[in-house]
Each structure stands twice: as C-alpha cells, then as structure tokens.
Amino acid sequence: MSDESPWLIVGLGNPGKEYAANRHNVGFMVADLVASRVGARFGRSKRAHSDVAEGRLGFGGPKLVLAKPLTYMNLLGAPVASLAQFFKVPVSNVIAVHDELDVPYGQIRAKRGGGEGGHNGLRSMSKSLASKEYARVRFGIGRPPGRQDAADYVLSDFSAAERKELDFLIDRAADVVEAIVLEGVEWAQNKYHGS
Predict the structure, then answer these.
(1) Catalytic: which of 24, 49, 119, 193?
(2) C-alpha torsion angle, residues 134, 127, 130, 78 (rounded to 10)
(3) Residue 172 within any structural domain of the chain
(4) How far, in Å, CA of 80 to CA of 135, rounded?
(5) Looking at the domain assignment, is residue 1 inside a domain?
(6) C-beta atoms surrounding 183 within 10 Å
(7) What pLDDT, in 10s, does the model give residues 128-187?
(8) DSSP labels, the chain
(9) 24 is catalytic
(10) What domain range includes position 11?
(11) Strands of 7-11's sheet in order across
C-alpha cells in the first residue's frame, strides 16, 4: 500500500429527511462536517448509490473520498465496496463512522477491526468488503433508557439534553477521523480516549 492511496470515509446512516436527526444517522452528520472542513461538496453517484464528496486533508495532503450510502443501513456494504474498488482504496484505508450503543453518550472511540456489535451497517460492510479490518470511529449513544427497544432508540432523535453537546461531539468525531488519516488508529486512541 502506498502513501498515495486515498481514504474512504463512510458515514453510516439512513437516507431520507425523516431519519436525518436520528441517533443512527450521526455518521452522516460527521461526514458532512469533514466534507465542509476540506471544502468538498457532496454529489450523487448513481453507480455507487451514494452521495460522494472528494477533497484533500490539508494542502497536498491525503485524498479523502467521503460517502453517505443511500441504501438503508443493512444494505450499505455494496455501495461501500463499489466505491473502494472504483477509487482503489485498500481496506486498511476505509473508515466507518457510526453510532455505538456500547459506548456512553459523550465518548468517541477509534478502533480497527473487531466485531460488529449487532450493528447492521457494520455487518453489511464487513460482508461486502470481505474483511473486518477497516477502521471505525464509534460515536457513543449509550444504551436506551428503561425498556425501550434498541431499534426504536437508534431511530429516534437525540434528546434536548444531548443536543446541547451534539455539535461539540460531532466536531470531536471529525477530529478523530482526521487523526486516523494523518497519524493512525493507535495515535488517535492515545489522544482521544482519555477525554
């Protein structure tokens, strides 16, 4: 793998206005912020059934391909694999940004590989990429309160209390994405897991 290989950053979410502010769509929110930071604009890719933006991280820096698949979460692996193939992105340069029930709200975690933790989007990606060795930026949403079903919880909007911190946390998640691209997963863990 050369240093010239682009990075594919996939925001996980569901298409459609009714899902836009859901916990499950935080990956889209982070992808939007990273795109705006690098001056990239999303356009529709019919071939990959995704909204795609291209830019560079810093002047002459690594090329970023940002994607928001327009399939539903459980089918997003095929567009991701299609984009990775088209842009010649190795699995080691793929980053999935997603909501994570097993991480408390307010925490962002970076990792490479591992299980999918019941996340249908990750399961679909792992299957289509034939690998689990991509990086993940796990945006903690915590467990549902009381007896609320996890599926209903992830498809609900952030609470008023959570929204007070949401912009800061999306900004932090975008920082973690950039840190992985520039310095690697381990460096990002050392810098961001303590806070």
Answers:
(1) 24
(2) -90
(3) yes
(4) 14
(5) no
(6) 12
(7) 999 999 999 999 999 998 899 999 999 999 999 999 999 999 999 999 999 999 999 999
(8) --TT--EEEEE----SGGGTTBGGGHHHHHHHHHHHHTT---EEETTTTEEEEEEESSTT--EEEEEEESS-GGGTHHHHHHHHHHTT--GGGEEEEEEETTS-TT-EEEEES---TT-HHHHHHHHHHT-S-SEEEEEE--PPSTT--HHHHHTSBPPHHHHHHHHHHHHHHHHHHHHHHHH-HHHHHHHHTT-
(9) yes
(10) 7-192
(11) 43-45, 50-56, 63-69, 7-11, 94-100, 135-140, 108-112
- Is 2 inside a domain boundary? no
Query: Does residue 148 belong to any structural domain of this protein?
Result: yes
As for how many domains the chain has, the answer is: 1
Angle between helices 77-86 and 120-129 (to 10 degrees): 40
Question: Above 60 in pLDDT, residue 195?
Answer: no
pLDDT at 25 over 80: yes
d(CA 71, CA 94): 18
Q: Which pTM was predicted?
A: 0.95
Could you report the per-residue pLDDT of 39-64, keeping only the tens digit for each? 999 999 988 999 999 999 988 899 99
Contacts of 10 (CB under 8 A, 6+ apart): 27, 31, 67, 68, 69, 76, 80, 94, 95, 96, 97, 125
What is the CATH classification number for the domain harbouring 53?
3.40.50.1470
* Token reading at 110: 């970076």
Using only C-alpha atoms, what is the Rg of the chain? Answer: 15
